[in-house]
Specification:
The chain has 2 domains: 195 residues, 3-Layer(aba) Sandwich (Trna Endonuclease, Chain: A, domain 1); 157 residues, 2-Layer Sandwich (Yope Regulator, Chain: A). Helices cover 39% and strands 23% of the residues. It contains 11 helices and 14 strands.
């Protein structure tokens, strides 16, 4: 840091000092400076307690407890020349202790602080003022998983910075401020510089943290879905034995669909599909040639009336002009495979209606196969299932 000398148009270096050199103490000085002017940490904070120790079954004390403008509790831990290696663990403990505090407890803690520092001041009035005169009943404080951590020290050990950066991947709001004292001509100066995350990159770091957390959450959800589907299809395959010639050679899968041949035409399959909202049985035309799929679909659609009469219900005929495949489907809404109590109903539906679909269309397979053979000269794929 430099001081500008206007008269000589020059700059003069300030002497960087340690807190111990200058005789400053953690509680008597650094803590009091921040408590008296919390905006030195780069934002508006309301200090609600110092040396807070009202944790059940422990006598530990956190340095400063504050609220930010979003109603989040902010745990501020101060160290002097060296952060030490345990400050992150300390702050995490205090954050966990504070996570259970409800609004009335926070008001009471703040009132006790005011009684000792500013007698006559009312916590409710101060909170209303801090939150821009919002009605106290509508002020929301310390919502779940919103606690923040601010660490202040002249020097941070690698154990601390590495841990803070890792914690941020899990959406734990943690910041490190480097406190540096300087001296010039018996005047002492102090800088508080946010080093983690760096101020300029803070929004980017937060967005990347959110993305990382979303990816972790998504990965966990995907694994859970896969586990549920494997279990569901295993139950289904046990149930369909002796009830249908279809799916006898199929295996349980992590996918939300199960495929069986049986049409006698390659890549013309019976499919079962399960989702959070419905279940369906399908006859799909999935050959590599779009033209071949449309030929097969159109040949079968000529018998739509008879097929639906045999099936007993209207079917969904999806030629899907812009897509390669086509399909004929029957859906039942209101079925959710995530609810294991519904599995019995879903399995009964799938078995009953895939059998109905197979019975309704099977007699037309020789005809649509002939239509396909007549429409192409060079068949790129085997016509029949191997």
């Amino acid at each position: 840091m430099f001081v500008i000398n206007k008269s000589t148009n020059s700059i003069e270096s300030l002497n960087r000092k340690s807190f111990s050199e200058l005789g400053f103490k953690e509680r008597a000085h650094l803590q009091e400076w921040i408590a008296g002017n919390p905006e030195a940490l780069g934002e508006k904070l309301l200090i609600i307690q110092k040396e807070f120790s009202d944790f059940s079954e422990t006598n530990e004390r956190l340095d400063l407890l504050a609220l930010d403008k979003s109603g989040n509790l902010v745990i501020i831990e101060n160290k002097l020349d060296d952060s030490g290696k345990d400050v992150t663990w300390q702050a995490l403990k205090y954050a966990s202790y504070c996570s259970t505090l409800v609004k009335e407890e926070i008001r009471s803690i703040f009132q006790a602080y005011l009684d000792s520092t500013l007698p006559g001041k009312n916590a409710v009035d101060m909170l209303k003022e801090f939150y821009d005169d919002e009605d106290y009943s509508e002020i929301v404080l310390n919502q779940r998983m919103t606690q923040r951590i601010i660490l202040v020290a002249a020097n941070f050990r690698k154990e601390v910075t590495s841990t803070v950066l890792w914690l941020m991947n899990f959406k734990i709001q943690a910041q490190c401020f480097k406190a540096t004292p300087y001296e010039l001509n018996q005047q002492v100066f102090l800088t508080l510089e946010q080093i983690i995350p760096t101020k300029d990159a803070q929004d980017y770091v937060i967005s990347m943290t959110n993305k990382a957390q979303e990816e972790i959450t998504t990965e966990v959800e995907v694994k859970a879905r896969h586990k549920i589907r494997l279990k569901f299809w295993a139950e289904f395959l046990k149930s369909i034995k002796r009830k249908s010639p279809l799916f006898q050679n199929s295996n349980a899968t992590k996918d939300h669909w199960l495929v069986a041949g049986g049409s006698g035409i390659t890549y013309v399959n019976f499919n079962l599909v399960i989702t959070k909202t419905d279940a369906s049985v399908q006859l799909t035309f999935g050959r590599t040639s779009q033209a071949e799929n449309k030929t097969l679909f159109d040949a079968l659609a000529l018998h739509k009336t008879e097929i639906e009469s045999t099936f007993g219900e209207p079917l969904v005929w999806e030629r899907m002009e812009e897509k390669k495949s086509s399909r004929v489907s029957y859906y039942k809404n209101g079925l959710n495979y995530f609810n294991e109590e519904e599995w019995g109903d879903i399995i009964l539906f799938l078995i009953e209606y895939v059998n109905k679909l197979e019975k309704s269309v099977r007699k037309f397979f020789p005809e649509i196969k002939a239509a396909l053979a007549a429409s192409i000269k060079d068949i790129q794929e085997p016509l029949e299932e191997q």
